Amino acid sequence: MTGMTAGGKRRRTAALISGRGSNMAALLAAAAATDFPAEIVLVAANRPEAAGLATARDAGIATESIDHKPFGRDREAFERALDARLNAHGIELICLAGFMRILTPWFVQRWLGRLINIHPSLLPSFPGTQTHERALAAGVRLHGCTVHFVEPEVDAGPIIAQTAVPVLPGDTPDILSARVLAQEHLLYPHALALVAGGAVRFVPGAPSGRVETDPTADRTPPTLSLSVPA
Question: Where's the Formyl transferase N-terminal domain (predicted)?
Answer without folding.
Answer: 12-192
